[in-house]
Amino acid sequence: MDTKYEEIIKEIQRRIAEGRLRPGGKLPSIRAFSKEFSCSINTVVRAYSELEKEHKVYSVPKSGYFLLENRPAEMTKNNDVIDFLTAGPDIHNMPYRDFQHCINQAIEYYKEDMFQYSDPMGLPTLRIQLSKQLQNLQVFAPPDRIGVVSGSQQALDLLVSLPFPNGKTEICVDQPTHFSFIDSLTTREINAIGIEMTRDGIDLKYLEKIFRDKPIKFFYTVSRFQNPTGYSYSNKEKKKIVELAQKYDVFIVEDDYMGDLDSKKKADPMFCFDPSGRIIYTKSFSKVLLPGLRLGLVVLPSELVRSFTKVKFAADVHTPVLTQGALEIYLQSGMYNAHIERLRKKYNEKARTLKQAFLDYLPSEVTFSGAESGFYSTIILPPHVKAEYLVNNLKKKNILVQNATEMFLPQYRKENIIRLSISQIEECKIRIGIKRIAEEICLLLKVVS
């Protein structure tokens, strides 16, 4: 015989089948179901919690529970697959309903602005709000130095080809780094100098040599949770890099795309160590909010604002007003800060599980990086073992990982590194997945030895 909470689940399923509950629709309140089924509030909460675990409903604080939107069959995940490949934010932890509310408000508030061109650098009101929000990250910048961009990648792509005040032409970049920045460099045939990012960071003495001997326009680096290694610089390292940039007339493009998720309260961006305006700070909302929004920001030195505005206008005229307005309302309401707090806790929990699994299962012949980040990490195989073989073997066993070979500039390429992301994976599957990866590595090591 069904228990009360199972009866409630079956009733919800019946209403879905009959079309009385539709995707995105709100479920009956906990109190209403408690009265209808003559049961306690805790019984209804348990029913909703079970459905939430199955990713059939989601909750919105102070609003209730909602039926998750139907997803196309090709996007529905196979429960047997352990996915360390997908690096976007977890769809089950995204604030769909809250942001929908903000979009509706933005449509009403900015309805006249949507029928005309806007400022290429972004809505003035959003830039004011971003200036306030950045203070939480120890980035103090006036609105007139902030540009709104279509994800931080747009800012990076424009900066690659933009002439800089130092008159230099080459770019120094972490190796490995994310695919899109590699593409920006290679498609424009920019002469790029790589510096290896290891589990222990970069060689600062070698960085100084590069700055001293090469005409480096800017050094592009991800200061926290680097993609793919997951490495975060210490404050001491950040200060040293800034000092070298000042000494050798090099700009720094600091990508702090996930700075919001840093739980270390005393960790600061490079930007706050530089009083000269030599740091260009970029940030994206793709990994912590909704990637489809394609919204990011760039904080520019005063002498670059005019030229950047010109190339930004040439690229897209202006960033869509509706999404800008919705982000402004979302930030101003305090919803963003509450959302980040939840995400930070979630990723920290996953990161602890991942690090312990690495320590428990990986063979001594391999090393790992970035387990503390809760988003990206790498497994480094012995030099003679190709990541390609491991990736293909794991795929046959329903474990997905990223071959990091294409995340290097051609002249610096390494073929023995895989990237993992735990953003999409359920915490309970992390240890299972790492154990299976370790087992496959051991088999591969025997074959190539």
The quaternary organization reads as single chain
Summarize model confidence as the mean pLDDT. Answer: 89
The main sheet comes to: 7 strands, mixed
- Beta content comes to 5-15%
Count of individual domains: 3
**CATH superfamily heading of the largest domain:** Type I PLP-dependent aspartate aminotransferase-like (Major domain)
Estimate the helix proportion, in percent: 40-55%
CATH topology category name of the largest domain: Aspartate Aminotransferase, domain 2
Q: Structural class, from helix and strand content?
A: alpha/beta
Structure keywords:
single chain, 449 residues, alpha/beta, Arc Repressor Mutant, subunit A, Aspartate Aminotransferase, domain 2, Aspartate Aminotransferase, domain 1, 3 domains
Structure described in brief:
By secondary structure, the chain is an alpha/beta fold. The protein has helices at residues 4-17, 30-36, 41-53, 96-109, 124-134, 152-161, 179-187, 204-213, 235-247, 302-316, 321-333, 335-361, 387-396, 427-448; strands at residues 57-60, 64-67, 82-83, 146-149, 170-175, 192-196, 216-222, 251-255, 279-284, 296-299, 367-369, 376-380, 399-400, 402-403, 417-421. The protein has a 7-stranded mixed beta sheet, sandwiched between helices. Strands 11-12-15-14 form a 4-stranded antiparallel beta sheet, covered by helices on one side. A two-stranded antiparallel sheet has the order 1-2.
